[in-house]
Amino acid sequence: MSNFFKVFNALFKELSMNKNGLNGYDLDCILVSSMYAEQQSAYLNSYETGLSVSTIKKLVEEYWDVYDRDDALKILTDLLHRNEDEYVDFVYKALEDESNYEALLKANLPTDEGAFEYYIDLYRSLGNTVPELIEENVISHFSELKKIKDSGWNLGRAAFLARCCFELGHLSEEELKDYLSKTHTALKKYCGTWREYTISYIFGRSIWGGANNDGMISIADTLLNDDKSPLKNKAL
């Protein structure tokens, strides 16, 4: 199923809920994966995704290059810690100080040419993305992104990928529960509400995937406001 039809289905069908779903803290942790899960029309409230093995295998292998346990652990570790990159903070500061951005970046970014270009590209991408999100009423000002960054994007994908890896046998249930707990703890360092989580997810997707956020914005609205959504009126 193409990404277009996955988003289309997510917009025009009921939320996918496992009748034997989780509760309490376990549910809190699984909800870190909710934006990605809803994109894929997967269960929102259980370790199991409800997707076929062939669908999960295709997603994990073709989109994430994960073929075994070692691959899974490598990418899951990277996603869990991706928002701890101190250089990204200087990129955000440069966006706030346009008159001095060049000197700020040169003084604080890595001297390695490849790494430097990576952060310069990120700076340019942010410069394009923030006005789009303001125009789409996702945010009203760049300051709303300074703390949350793209944490929801990184940790949300991490949590859902971990669920998929569990179903393929790359992680045990205990390893999955421990990992999801870590993603929830990490998310709370950046986001104070589930609304902020959805904003940071949309933000991250915009940075790496470009404009056209209507589908993601609609998914976020459904997760936050649908009476059947486990995120509605729920504290992070």
TrEMBL record:
<dbReference type="Pfam" id="PF06889">
    <property type="entry name" value="DUF1266"/>
</dbReference>
<dbReference type="InterPro" id="IPR009677">
    <property type="entry name" value="DUF1266"/>
</dbReference>
<protein>
    <recommendedName>
        <fullName>DUF1266 domain-containing protein</fullName>
    </recommendedName>
</protein>
<feature type="domain" description="DUF1266">
    <location>
        <begin position="61"/>
        <end position="233"/>
    </location>
</feature>
